[in-house]
């Protein structure tokens, strides 16, 4: 996520706040912040998360959709802040990849580690939905969870 993406997401969250609209953000990022942008890129994690905090105070409904892969700073910030978190089947979700975690912790990890199924079992994800069913499921969630 670079500065442009961070700015666009922040503006989308602010607009949803102004208009009292539900918000759906679909995340799919193989990495985190764009390191060549330096601190400007890293600041986007906090900037988007702060906008989401204001949105939550305004009682907005935020649905976060995790696609394959959702990693790095995206997973560590706004993608994990949804009121409802939906993931596609077999999506890789996490901050660092499984090989890095395994090497760092020096333990064997479960085969399904950092998959959406693992995340569902451990309470990080609320629902797993196939991409072909995503539109109707999001509509159902918005109808059910709308806070108007």
Automatic annotation (TrEMBL):
One GO location term (cellular component): acetyl-CoA carboxylase complex
Pfam families noted in UniProt: Carboxyl_trans
Keywords: Fatty acid biosynthesis, Fatty acid metabolism, Lipid biosynthesis, Lipid metabolism, Transferase
GO biological process, one term: malonyl-CoA biosynthetic process
One Gene Ontology MF term: acetyl-CoA carboxylase activity
Keyword Lipid metabolism part of the UniProt annotation: yes
InterPro entries listed in its UniProt record: AcCoA_carboxyl_beta, Acetyl_CoA_COase_Trfase_b_su, ClpP/crotonase-like_dom_sf, COA_CT_N
Top-rank taxon: Bacteria
Domain (CoA carboxyltransferase N-terminal): residue spans on this chain: 1-148
Protein name: CoA carboxyltransferase N-terminal domain-containing protein
Species per Swiss-Prot/TrEMBL record: Planctomyces bekefii
